[in-house]
Design brief:
The complex is a heterotrimer of chains A (137), B (130) and C (101). Chain A has 137 residues and is of the alpha/beta class. Chain A has helices at residues 22-33, 85-90, 121-129; strands at residues 8-13, 39-44, 81-84, 102-105, 111-114, 116-119, 133-136. Chain B is α/β, with parallel strands linked by helices and 130 residues long. In chain B, 52% of the residues are buried. The chains are: A alpha/beta (137), B alpha/beta (130), C alpha/beta (101).
Amino acid sequence: MTENVTKKFLYVNRKAPYGTIYALESLEVVLIGAAFEQDVSMAFIDDGVYQLKKDQSTDGIGMKNFSPTYNALGDYDVHKIYVDKESLDERGLTADDLMNLVYEDEDDDYAEKSSISIVTREELAQLMEQQDVVLSF
Amino acid sequence: MKFGILVNEGPYQHQASDSAYQFTKAALEKGHEIYRVFFYHDGVNNATRLTVPPQDDRHIVNRWSELGKQHNLDLVVCIAAAQRRGLLDENEAKRQGKDANNIAEGFRISGLGQLIEAGIQSDRLVVFGD
Amino acid sequence: MTLHTVNKSPFDRNSLESCLRFARQGHSVLLFEDGVYAAVKGTRFEGLVTEALKNNKIYVLLPDLEARGMRSDNIIDGLKTVDYAGFVDLAAESDRVQAWL
């Protein structure tokens, strides 16, 4: 019964990592959710963009650096990752500051492609409006 | 209409669980169905039966248990989030070699897949958190 | 149509501002919990809310407003109050509910 339903799921991430657990546990939902073969997108807005910052190193705080886990998303077929341009701009960040997340496009001879799209407010608003389920963390 | 409810914060610290409860109760009173209430993040703490609030305060845990019993609600606590925060049912306590369990009546512990399933099966998923 | 829910004071978090940045014409916004402080007349967010009212319906959860010592005549003109049953109706009428946590 469950298998035949495909819904559009959007995970909205608006919180920075480490200060609170939301980013880490949100990522766990996405990874588990991938097994359900739904149409999954992720949006990173406001402080959520800090989750994708490259060069995270947590040795000094005694917490697990979970940022490498984002690299696994592509293998789980989660490759629609949208980052709000205004949120990056406000924080003095550019695409170069983010991790290089990729996936292999099976419809294009498994060519390696970037999972991250940096999008405008309007593009994100449109994306949100197409969803069946919006999970906010 | 079928609602799924996600509760992301613990009792008393945040209003999230109170709001989720009031929403769930109102939805049931209007004849809607609650497909599942899923407790995640610190929300898992809504399910500890060791809670002892002052007598003149609401008992958030018992209130969920009672509403659950009354309407046969599926109250599901995320296992990964629960283990981190020391919330165990009898089976899990045994498996982890712990000397006690603390889950309240009417709640069950299960995987995150139950949240995704609630998203798939419900007409609306409503999230309460911080 | 989307129902956006905002539960944080605009003085504490940017949830309302972010929500309004992405809410499209015709969407509804519900202010509840500490979000109700944005509904009150005379705050520095009144302009933001009034501007949003041109494109969006904005609702306030009355029990949360009253709990915080305010009444429905303290809120910005054009906002509507609802109770929990009204919140349920709004969620049911919308295609999706998006929480701005």
